[in-house]
Write a structure and sequence with these properties.
With 426 residues, the protein is an alpha/beta fold. Helices cover 46% and strands 10% of the residues. It is built from 14 helices and 13 strands. The strands form four sheets. The chain has a five-stranded parallel sheet with strand order 10-7-11-12-13, with helices on both faces. It has a four-stranded antiparallel sheet with strand order 4-5-8-9. Strands 1-2 form a two-stranded antiparallel ribbon. A hairpin with a 7-residue loop joins strand 1 and strand 2. It is elongated. The two termini are 35 Å apart.
Amino acid sequence: MIGFKTQDVYTDLDAKIRMVRRVVLSAGVAVVVVAVMVFRFLPIPIAVIAFLSFSVLSVVLFEAFFRLFWRFTHSGRPYVMKSWVDLDRFTLEPHPYLPYVYKKNSFLNEIADNKSAARDRKYTFYGVHTNSMRCVNGYDGDREIQVPKPEGLIRISCLGDSTTASYINYQGRHYNYALELERILQERFSAQRVEVNNFGTGGYNSVDLLVRFLLTVYDTKPDIVFIYSAFADLAMAFSPGFDPDFSHYKRNMEGFWRDYQKASRLPRLPLKAYNYLVSFMNSGVMHIQDDTQFISSKSFPDFTKRYVRLDSFERNLEHIIKVCKASGIHVVLSTYVYRIPEVKNIPGFRNYLKEAMNEANEIIRGLADRHGMGLVDNARCFPHDPEHLVDRVHLSHTGTQLFAKNISVPISEFIERKLIMPVPVR
């Protein structure tokens, strides 16, 4: 899910991690010193018994101290054991050319919506599967994309971040704008085979979309590519030491994946102090499941200062458009819908972020005009309210329906032209 955290959040976490690691290291040194002294001055049989007794007593005392200290510092609430690392339940994995990808044929765990702007609704996200192309596609997420493309099929591919990838669940039904778009088009063109595929991935910026398009989407031979991207690029623009290839900010999740594998091999012990130490020493593991920013960034956005111009964002989208035009693929763009609240402890946050989003949307309008691409100006015609957005950028169930209705207009016009004057197969 898209959601920017500031440097203070991660600096505080890193400080706690360093403290815990120092405590563990100090305890390890103390154990070694005691062991050396015991085995040096006592007979081996007695030394073994003494050392084991000392170790057990130390663990019991430390566990008791931890439980009391936790209650004392948390208003009497007991420490709740964190769930253990489970490789089978983990949904992301490293990729050599992308920061991360969804696992093939995996289940994306359902995530509760705790930040919904509409408090009277109960939403959850995901709770669906992925297919063999590592994307969430079709109603249950695991619908495959046939390659080579069947004869006579009109194929639309949606590219984007979590606003494209997210399935929102409301009253027992999955909602996603790609699903709603496919339903609209299939009803409108009932005599024609029409398919809408979802290639969105949470947290992907314009560089990630470019790589994803070239390595995967292009081979599926879409007739239309719909691109909905902007918000994920802002973290790069607000991060210090800007580099046009985003290397100042992005990193591969490989390091966290190795930590994850190590943590999964640790023994399960019913000790709260041990559980706490493991969770902090493998902090990336504990965040990796639902925080794509944490696992794929190496710097922090600073929203108290003006951003770098979004030239790289424009360049990356334009590369996709040029490849599509050269290959006879029609492109439809949408400006980005957002609702930015005021953040009290970050001066200028709302103004700077709004300014950056407005620039991104002007870039999208300019690209559509310059290349003669279809444009849906949702930033101007889509309601920016809790009825249609569950948070800053993610669509509600009614939002997905309206969004799909808006983008279906230029897509339907292209399909009608294509049916009248078929484009030669590439």
